[in-house]
Specification:
- By secondary structure, the chain is α/β, with parallel strands linked by helices.
- It has 14 helices and seven strands.
- α3 links the parallel β2 and β3.
- The model has no long low-confidence stretch (mean pLDDT 96).
- Bound molecules: S-adenosylmethionine.
Length: 308
């Protein structure tokens, strides 16, 4: 059974004020989810327009209901990694603001049948876009030992990646979330299972990142989106994983740098021009209150830039 779309938008006021919204601007929410942030952006628009993208059809359906009757909202089911094609198709040439709230929605995690969570017993799946052929079943049952270990170790930062990958392979086929969770538990010392809040979290996160290609072309997409921003336009990016945040930080750093010639080059030969300024040098994190009320905000980092 499908659940109602529930997701609490993270750092809502920080995101909205960070975007410095123009009432007549064109805003792009690349990861609209349940439309929490978008709804607040819309509250600031008069003649402006909002484009909302998500690769999850559930999110698009939820937003169709939420924004029914609003003629300044365009919803598009797609992947923001193909934003060049999407903006072309929508005939949008420039933007006044862009939001990326990366990662997974509470709706996806909390819907048992989506197979994202070890809290429910369900077939392994974890696809944000259910029209995609590749799912968690493929990662868990088809990857070689070294590839599986690398995914779990890199994306999950899991110190027990080696023994988890080994035991997954030994127990193939692994088809359900509970089966995977119990393999993970049995791959680490009992005291670690008890001391960690959610022994399985890191491995589930790693497999989810791999299934959805969450880090692929993120850097290039950010660079492209910056080229589409009007002068004074802003981009806000919320990340939930250190690798994701590093990609965002590096993309912003590159665009905020005037020349990228190797140190010591007598005159600039790269021709690279600074195109943005950083609004916050250090990432903004959720307030203690928000972290208490919504534990999913604990790992969130917000970075904001302005086009110059
Ligand atoms: C954290 S939720 C967004 C929540 C939203 N800001 C809100 O307030 O309801 C992330 C959403 O981004 C979507 N998503 C993740 N990667 C995507 C991509 N590459 N292209 C399009 N949507 C993506 C997911 O399907 C999910 O619905």
């Amino acid at each position: 059974m499908e659940t109602e779309f529930k997701h609490i938008p993270i750092m809502l006021s920080e995101v909205t004020s960070g975007l410095n919204i123009r009432p007549d601007g064109i805003y792009l929410d690349c990861t609209i989810g349940g439309g929490g942030h978008s709804s607040e952006i819309l509250n600031h628009l008069t003649t402006g327009k909002l484009i909302g993208i998500d690769k999850d059809q559930d999110a698009i359906e939820a937003c169709k209901k939420r924004f029914a009757g609003k003629d300044n909202v365009i919803l598009y089911k797609g992947d923001f990694k193909q934003i060049d094609l999407i903006l072309n198709e929508l005939n949008i040439n420039s933007l006044d603001g862009v939001l990326l709230d990366l990662g997974v929605s509470s709706h996806q995690i909390d819907t048992a049948l989506r197979g994202f969570s070890f809290r429910f017993d369900a077939p392994l799946d974890m696809r944000m876009d259910r029209s995609q052929n590749f799912s968690a079943l493929d990662v868990v049952n088809k990857y070689s030992f070294s590839r599986l270990m690398r995914v779990i170790s890199e994306y999950g930062e899991e110190p027990y990646a080696r023994s988890i990958a080994f035991n997954i392979i030994k127990n193939r086929p692994v088809t359900t979330t509970k089966q995977l969770a119990s393999i993970i538990e049995n791959s680490m010392p009992k005291k670690v299972v008890f001391s960690r809040r959610g022994a399985h979290k890191k491995t589930f996160q790693a497999i989810r990142i791999e299934v959805n290609g969450e880090l692929d072309r993120l850097f290039e997409s950010i660079l492209y989106l910056i080229t589409k921003l009007n002068k004074g336009g802003r981009m806000a990016v919320l990340t939930f994983h250190s690798l994701e945040d590093r990609i965002v930080k590096n993309a912003f750093k590159l665009c905020a740098t005037e020349c990228i010639c190797p140190p010591g080059t007598p005159i600039c030969v790269c021709g690279h021009k600074k195109s943005i300024k950083l609004i916050n040098k250090k990432p903004i994190i959720a307030s203690k209150d928000e972290q208490k009320q919504n534990p999913r905000s604990t790992s969130a980092k917000l970075r904001i830039i302005e086009k110059i």
